[in-house]
Task: inverse folding
């Protein structure tokens, strides 16, 4: 997709990017694989070409959970086993099966009962049959914010992620189909800000903890992969005065975007109240 930056220069974006104004744009990736392909194959933005890259800082293992960017990519590809075990330990096994299929009565050339009027008229589909068809469900999209500050512990992230999955399970048990995105954002001096959305679960998928453990739990999702996105993206406009990747986006800015899209925003600290409120409120 081709868009124009603040200088009016056309740039190519390998993602679904919408430039809302000179001060704001949002970018969507259809999957983690799409994000990985983008950040590994896109040259550095000129603003970061000669800078010390936050995504590649080494010896920050306690903060990012990895020694470097390459290790983070390796865990993304091969699975975050520690995170999988933690989520499995926190999420109770689901005993109630959600019914995705239903029986539909229809006329057919074969079936369990004959429709006499149709048979007498010579209509080929004169038998009554019952076929199993997918149930059409209302789709709800959740956007889980992952731009945690450095003061948020791994234990807290696990709690917030567990509650996010509990919300999904409750909604699916009520008959909804749920998309889950993780979202991150940054803002820089001058008022420019960007929101990035990555689809990690589609509405036609069940919860797959093996797939969700890394994006929901691992600090490198934010502090390696998302930092690298900012470093390579053509939409990155300004740097902060401290040569960092910018400050966190306000919750109100997230909500403003997702409200317009008819989606639900889950902030960083998902609470027990959020589980009850979101699953009980009337979804429009």
Result:
């Amino acid at each position: 997709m081709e868009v124009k930056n603040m200088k009016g220069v056309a740039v190519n974006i390998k993602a679904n990017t919408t430039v809302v104004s000179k001060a704001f744009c949002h970018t969507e990736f259809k999957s983690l694989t799409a994000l990985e392909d983008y950040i590994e194959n896109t040259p550095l933005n000129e603003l970061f070409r000669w800078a010390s890259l936050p995504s590649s800082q080494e010896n920050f293992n306690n903060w990012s959970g990895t020694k470097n960017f390459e290790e983070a990519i390796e865990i993304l590809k091969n699975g975050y086993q520690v995170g999988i075990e933690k989520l499995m330990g926190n999420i109770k096994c689901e005993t109630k099966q959600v019914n995705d299929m239903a029986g539909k009565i229809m006329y057919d050339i074969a079936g369990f009962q004959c429709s006499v009027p149709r048979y007498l008229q010579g209509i080929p589909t004169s038998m009554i049959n019952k076929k199993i068809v997918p149930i059409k469900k209302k789709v709800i999209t959740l956007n889980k914010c992952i731009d945690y500050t450095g003061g948020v512990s791994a234990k807290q992230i696990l709690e917030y992620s567990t509650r996010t999955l509990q919300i999904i399970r409750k909604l699916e048990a009520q008959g909804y189909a749920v998309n889950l995105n993780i979202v991150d954002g940054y803002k820089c001096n001058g008022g420019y800000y960007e929101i990035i959305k990555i689809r990690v679960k589609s509405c036609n998928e069940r919860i797959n903890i093996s797939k969700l453990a890394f994006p929901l739990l691992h600090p490198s999702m934010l502090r390696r992969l998302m930092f690298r996105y900012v470093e390579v993206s053509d939409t990155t406009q300004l740097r902060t005065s401290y040569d960092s990747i910018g400050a966190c986006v306000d919750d109100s800015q997230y909500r403003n975007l997702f409200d317009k899209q008819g989606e639900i925003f889950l902030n960083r600290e998902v609470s027990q109240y959020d589980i009850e409120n979101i699953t009980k409120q009337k979804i429009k």
